Amino acid sequence: MAPNQPIKKKPTKSKIRRISDWLHLWLGIASGLVVFHLGITGCIFAFQKEITELIHRKEIFVEAPKNLQTVPLSVLKQTAEKALGGQKEINFISTYKEADRAWEFGAFKAGDPKAFWYFDSIDYYDLVLINPYNGKVTLVADHKYEFFAIIKMLHWSFLINHPIGQQIIGWSTFIFVFLLISGIVMWWPKNLKKSNFDKSFKVKWRAKFKRVNYDLHNVLGFYVMIICLMLALTGMVWSFQWFQTTVYVVASRSITPPVQADVKSDSTKKISTNPFDVAFNTAKVKFKDFDRIGMSPAAGGTATIYATGYHGNETYWNFDVLQFDQYTGKLLHRKNQSDKNAGEALIGMNYDIHVGAILGLPGKILAFFGSFIAASLPITGFIIWWGKKKKKKNPAVAD
């Protein structure tokens, strides 16, 4: 260095910026493994419907007759229960408007509610697929151990049934939201002249590994920030009751919970035909324009039969609900999607937004790449930190 040459001092960061950078680093290290886990399991689950239909195509899709005459639903329910050994009661059913699909019959029974692990919290969870036209069983599956069910619960709570599982997921997601916001603050170029634009918005693939890794962390993080925020915030709705309540209150502009109708069956009245079939036939008429109908038999006593009509074969947010007397099949109550306030509607959309299904296949593709890049951020971020740490330990010798 030439003598008497003035040394240019690097501009110092503000105290707030230095605190933000410090938190970004250490909170990122603390939550990195959980964020990586959530990203990878989210990627795997994104196309579970398409993969399942590909693997079990012969069992899921059937040949429909010209008259489209189906076996009575009560008979198909009995067939499904027989296929499960006669000891398990079917408590949820999915029927489809698409003529070439098998109908789904599920039997679920909770296990020990205090169990620590997911598998111990479920006694059984079985699924039977039946050709609705000839009543033949096409598939019997133990859904408790089904691959995507396990992936879903890994994503949900590390397969932990105790609240601590959801808390770990929830607070790590909360930290991830902060990391996304603070990362944008750290990344944002001081001015948008072309040189800064290229550095901030493009990955220099031909540069050395260190630079490529830096760009993968910053540039890709910027491009998926909105998607990752949506994934994170919708995930927090399940993790924290206070956050779900906040979303509801803000959307509905009310602190009053939605009113639930108190509808009961009348056990003093009976009919000669099967009330479950009567209810389903009514639901088919009421839901003639819906893509699928979910039927839930009454749980006994004064409980009612539920029929839920969904718009879409995969989404859950847009639905109407009918309640029927379990002894007569009489329609007692209907609640439509249009009857819900904005808070109910938004909370109802949460799952479909989280998995991207609300936008169909394009939405799931966005969710996949958002999850994939989210999983990569802790890795690229750690490599950046490790490189800086090594540089401090081995500083270059000045000329």
Short structural summary:
This protein is an alpha+beta fold and 399 residues long. It has helices at residues 15-46, 48-55, 57-60, 73-83, 147-157, 163-187, 194-201, 209-223, 225-239, 241-252, 275-286, 342-355, 360-393, and strands at residues 92-96, 103-110, 122-130, 137-142, 292-296, 304-310, 319-325, 331-335. The mean pLDDT is 91.
Defining key terms:
elongated, 8 strands, alpha+beta, 399 residues, single chain, 13 helices, 8-stranded antiparallel beta sheet
Note the topology.
Elements: H1 15-46, H2 48-55, H3 57-60, H4 73-83, E1 92-96, E2 103-110, E3 122-130, E4 137-142, H5 147-157, H6 163-187, H7 194-201, H8 209-223, H9 225-239, H10 241-252, H11 275-286, E5 292-296, E6 304-310, E7 319-325, E8 331-335, H12 342-355, H13 360-393
Antiparallel strand pairs: 1-2, 1-5, 2-3, 3-4, 5-6, 6-7, 7-8
Helix pairs in contact: 1-5, 1-6, 1-13, 6-8, 6-9, 8-13, 9-10, 9-12, 9-13, 10-12
